[in-house]
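Attaching the record inline, Q. Sequence:
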Amino acid sequence: MKISISHKHKANALQRLRFAAAVAALCIPIALRAQTPQTLRLSLAEAQQYAIEHNYTMQNASLDSITADLNRWKAWASMLPQVRFGFDYQNMCGYTMNMGGFSIPMDPNGTLSVNASVAVTGAQIVNVMMQNIATQMTDITRHQTEQSTRANVKNIYVSILVMEQTVGLLDSSLANLERLSATSQASVNVGAAEQVDADKLRVQVATMRNSIASTRRSLQMLRNSMLLQLGADVNAQLELTTPVDDILNVQEAAKLVLQPFNIEQNYNYQLLEQNEKLSEKQVLMAWMEYMPTLSAYYQYSEKKYFGDEGMNMTPPNMVGASISIPLFQSGSRIASVRSAKIAHQETLNNKRQAEDGLRVQFNQLCYDLTTALESYQIQRENIDVTKRVFDNLTEKYKFGRASSLEVTNASTDIISAQSNYIQAVMSVIAAQIELEKLLNNDNQ
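Structure, as predicted:
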């Protein structure tokens, strides 16, 4: 009997062990998938669309649009009938009212009432108009936020691609410089070269390694900035699929300078126009203080006694209307009107000044883009030339036809050319983005 019990316990333990192994086999892949970072393989258009859908600033802009629609509905609802339902119960606890020679029992009673009322003022009507304008301004702001989000994604996207190109260029140059440094040190060891030449190359190798490390850190910071801009998981991995040359289309960028400036397509100008309309309604709102207030109501009530029928003096139906006309307020209304007119004139002045500023900005951005394109062409050629000069000098140095100083200077020129090239590319992108935002081609 004892032996059978022991075997039974062993069988149960074995069964529990198998069950735990099965659970672990199911959980381990899930845990590994949870720990594996997400990989986002995105073209420029896909990255911009991803940011539109997930960026927190864009989400807030969409929520602001919803809030503006709700405020507009609240303005409309203030002029619609307001209906209230009520029930009132009273119990005098057996009290009897004595009136001379007779008494009236105060039985418990309940009153059911329904009230409907409506009041309309000129200020309410103007408020609806102002809420419509506010909704349009919120919608324009949302489009403006979307435009800025796309521009920011494009700017960071290109920066990452250029940095990756730079790292590849510097890695290639570093490999050549390391081989040259090793060859130089070997020549020193056999007495065919001086130690100072080998030391110069060794220092230059360290300098280029430091430049590569700094560029890689900058590249990682850009990737982190892109993830934040996208609204993606901060641990996600990025793979950018659009080549930089497809984005940096020099011919298309040059065409922007030739386009006419339609100021009405600009979002800032559209906001100025809506702000002008809003100031006009502010003047109208001030005049509405002279307008009467109209109101009407309907009331239905039914009183029920819980006992003997008492005296009911409450009419079941009641309607009423009223009009209130303001007469004298010690000149405060005319002061409000004049103040609103002054504010409206200031708005007009600000709008005209902003119009001139936008046109000047257009001319300046055209100049900036033209200059940036010219500089880009020069720096693109310069980085190719410095790379070929460095490769040529390294080959000459191997055969003793170039000095270590020339090689050092050539490697320094590559780092400088790389920095100038990055700056030129980003200047083109920045000028192009700002001009595209000003022209707002997507809104045409």
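The chain has one domain: 38-94+123-292+330-443. Confidence is low (pLDDT under 50) at residues 1-7, 30-34.

More tomorrow.
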